[in-house]
Amino acid sequence: MQPERLAAIQPSRLSVTRALMNRMLRERWDISVERFDVDAAGEGTVAYSIRTPRQEFSFIAFSRPPSRKARTGRIIGQAWDMMGTLNEGPVTEDDIASARTELPKLYRGRATPNALVWCRANRSMRIFDRTLAALASGGQPPTDDLAEVCYLMRNTGLDGNGTFGTRPFPSLGSGHDLGGPLQAQMLTAYLMREYSCDLVEHLARLQSDRAVPLDPAIRRYLGVGNGSALGLIFFVHRHPKLIGSWMSAREEAIARARGLELGKGDPRINTFIELVRRAITFRRQDRMHYETFASSVEVADDLEKVAAALVALRETGLVDGRREAFPLDALAKRFEQEIGLEALETFLSLLIELVPENADALAAGISGADEMTVAPAETCADLARLIRGQYGWALETDMSSPEAYRYIWYKSESAEEPRRGAREEVPDALDLGLDLCGGLQGLVEDLDRQEARLSVARFLMKHPEHRYLTARVQTLRDLTYHTPMANINAEDFTPIHLVRLMNAGIHGIDKTRDFLRRNLRGVLYHGAPTPDDIRAGREGVWAYPAEPRS
User: Fold this and answer.
1) Which of 136, 213, 309, 486 maximizes the CB count within 10 A of its CB?
2) Whether residue 352 is found in the same domain as residue 406
3) What is the dihedral of CA 376, 381, 385, 391, to 10 degrees?
4) Are residues 231 and 252 in the same domain?
5) Non-local CB neighbours of 308 within 8 Å, separated by 6+ positions
6) Rounded to 5 degrees, what angle do the CA atoms 529, 299, 514 make?
7) Which residues form the domain of 464?
8) What is the DSSP string of 94-162?
């Protein structure tokens, strides 16, 4: 749970986008356009139907002509190229009318009771316009253009779970087709991808009789852009049970794959080699610049070593000249010493593809209710012992140095967004960050002053300021992974590490490149199947797409 290691975790079969897409493929969800009334200027209304074997959903979007002055990706913006809502049930005229009125109000607006997610997106103007011109002229956009960003539109907001009056996710229940964590948001992101491709094709047809649709290979290659910033730090700290559930599922899937008994010529080794080579090609073709993280060239070079070791295993059945009962486990231990963290985590993430049934069952079991409850009958001595046993890293953190509280987390009054700034620059700000290290140290000090057999209930009557951390510690006691080992207020804490855990590992975003060590940009559903593919139940790994041929 070191932040640097969490930042290196790569997208896998357990990432929400990939797990959801694989379920959509297995169940052959039917996504179809119900309405596409958009004029040549880009103004109009769009509606999609999403039918699962059990339920129906609808996606309503309003297209706007892009404004080069008013457009912004920030929450305080007043104009977006698209605003939409994902609703339960089929498309209705009442839902369209309500969304048309309420969506533009944003914080002043109110969703209908069946709304799950409100969303916003903007075009990547240069790539969208070049793609539109190419399709209108009867050709396909050049790969060199597409590979610069890998999307036509970028997500600028996915809001649900009660925001704007949307339906709270806990009310959905486990039997709901979008009842799993983050699934409603990630389905909405996929529909953004489809909308962007449908829109550019539609506008091309309005411009020219010679217009052609996107080549299916190009359509798969294009994802939807995504930008994330410091708000995800709060998500990580406020949803420790979800983080713990996801991390545990991932570790179990990796352990199952590392425990496979493979010998010379085993076809599963060939499968694994193909996956690694697919990742190598993806990295070699990656044109993004990474400021904080390893370059794709470095990762590809390390993965070449992985591929070579796997070829040797396939041909000889040996690892470093020895026959191992669990050769993939032996290779993982070797790679821990030989290759960089991102290449190692790529290797581990790809391992999960060797146990797809196990992984999919584990993904279905990921959950994380937000409630934290106190165990009132526990004694102060037991609680102090629990904290010392599980949070030694926090108790050992030096909180007396000036650097320990160098920064404060607050909400910008002008931008309505989370910020991290030097305390002297915002002396009156309310600190919204979780001071886990300082808080636990203070809690243990107060516990040690009590009679050992005093109940936690009576202790909290005297010290109500410790209630949240007490409930958190007691609630999470049986989870192995739940809290990053970091003082987020310290000078040496790098926020981008935890943002990347959420984006790459949990969401499944590719090409997560950082900006100023605070913001992260990437591509959702890069290489994902089209609705036609989903309807047909297309088989095979779709992640790590190669550049389509021009």
Assistant:
1) 486
2) no
3) 60
4) no
5) none
6) 75
7) 380-475
8) HHHHHHHHHGGGGGG----TTEEEEEEEEE-HHHHHHHHHHHHTTS---HHHHTTTSEEEEEEEEEETT
State the pairing for strand pair 418-422/407-411: antiparallel
Tokens of 439: 């808080």
Same domain, 400 and 361: no
Other beta carbons within 10 Å of 4:
10
What are 34's two structure tokens?
């119900």
Question: How does strand 519-524 pair with strand 30-38?
Answer: unpaired
Q: Minimal CA–CA distance to 409: which of 307, 324, 498, 503?
A: 498
3-state secondary structure of 417: coil
| Residue closest to 525 by CA, chosen among 76, 155, 163 | 155
Instruction: Specify if 16 maps to a domain.
Output: no
Token readout for 29 is 């969800």
Which amino acid is it at 249?
A: A
Nearest to 543 by CA among 357, 345, 355, 283: 283
At residue 170, the pLDDT reads 87
Q: Is the dihedral of CA 196, 201, 207, 212 positive or negative?
A: positive
Can you read off the two tokens belonging to residue 129? 């316009």
Number of structural domains (the chain) is 3
Query: Considering the entire predicted model, what is its pTM?
Result: 0.94
Question: Tokens 């009310």 label which residue?
Answer: 171
Q: Which two tokens stand for residue 491?
A: 């000078």
What would the pLDDT profile of 378-407 be if each residue is shown by its tens digit?
A: 999 999 999 999 999 999 999 998 899 999
| Token pair in block for residue 64 | 């706007």
- The b-or-e profile of 442-473 (16+ CB within 10 A means b, else e) is bbbebbeebeeeebbeebbeebeebeebbbbb
Which tokens sit at 396?
């050992």
Q: How many angstroms separate the CA atoms of 149 and 144, rounded?
A: 10
pLDDT single digits (tens) 423-468: 888 888 888 889 999 999 999 999 999 999 999 999 999 999 999 9
> Model confidence at 418, in pLDDT bands (50, 70, 90)?
confident
Could you tell me if 165 and 191 lie in one domain? Answer: yes
3-state class (DSSP) for residue 31: strand
237 and 255 within one domain: no
What's the Cα-to-Cα distance from 53 to each of 48, 114, 116, 362, rounded to whole Å? 17, 19, 19, 21
For residues 420 and 529, membership in a common domain is answered with no
- Evaluate whether residue 375 is within a structural domain: no
Q: Are residues 386 and 312 in the same domain?
A: no
Count of Cβ atoms closer than 10 Å to residue 238 Cβ:
12
Burial status of residue 113 (CB atoms within 10 A of its CB: 0-12, 13-18, 19 or more): exposed
Say if residue 124 is in the same domain as residue 218.
Answer: yes
CA distance 116 to 286: 34
Q: How far apart are CA 270 and CA 155, in angstroms?
A: 37
Tokens for 283, please give them.
């990295």
